[in-house]
Amino acid sequence: MAETRKGEVTFRGNPVTLVGPKLKPGDKAPDFTCIGAGLAKVSLADTAGKARLFNVVPSLDTPVCSTQTKRFAAELKALGDKVAAYTVSLDLPFAQARFCTDANIENLQNLSDAHNHSFGTNYGVLIEDLPIPLLARTVLVVDPSDTIRYIQIVPEIAQEPNYEPALQALKAAAGS
């Protein structure tokens, strides 16, 4: 049975339980199996080769998640192809693709964790005690050697993350 952590984050002020380990910078990035474009299975190895940003959101169809994803898309333009960036949520791949098309986002690839929740569980960000499973708002930077260089699990899920420290960690991991 997976480890659980109660009260590390709140959802609209109410403490919730996260499933999985509490990861920290320096830890090896766990593997996962998400669904990407064309319903292809995507694992950590499939993202390898560059510094990576994982923009983890509860649902792209909410205002804060939308703002967060658009902000990262805008900030990442300056880094070009030096980095890879992914938005991870439990939204279905079709909804993720529609959101990115509507928002003209082309520099963040979508990963749906709806398949088996392995990203949420392995990274310790799956919320288990809501009426539906969601992922906690999280920003992760993983370097080319699959080591976590930055992680922020936002303490209140309805609030935006700290963008600047994540972007600085991403630039450092990319050697920029």
What would you say this structure looks like, in words?
Helix content is about 25%, strand content about 30%. It has about 180 residues and is of the alpha+beta class. The protein has a single domain (about 25-175), classed as 3-Layer(aba) Sandwich (Glutaredoxin). It has a 5-stranded mixed sheet. A 4-stranded antiparallel sheet has the order 1-2-8-9. Strands 3-4 form a two-stranded antiparallel ribbon. It is globular. The mean pLDDT is about 95.
Fourth-level CATH superfamily: Glutaredoxin
User: Can you tell me the CATH architecture?
Assistant: 3-Layer(aba) Sandwich
Q: Provide the low-confidence segments as ranges.
A: none
Rounded to an integer in angstroms, the radius of gyration calculated over CA atoms is 15 Å
Q: Write out the strand line-up for the largest beta sheet, numbering strands in chain order.
A: 7-6-5-10-11
What is the total domain count?
1
Distance between the termini: 40 Å
Biggest pleated sheet:
5 strands, mixed
CATH class placement: Alpha Beta
Indicate the proportion of strand residues: 25-35%
> According to CATH, what is the topology?
Glutaredoxin
Percent in helix:
10-25%
Order of helices and strands: EEEEEHEHEHEEEEH
User: How many H/I helical runs?
Assistant: 4
Helix/strand class: alpha+beta
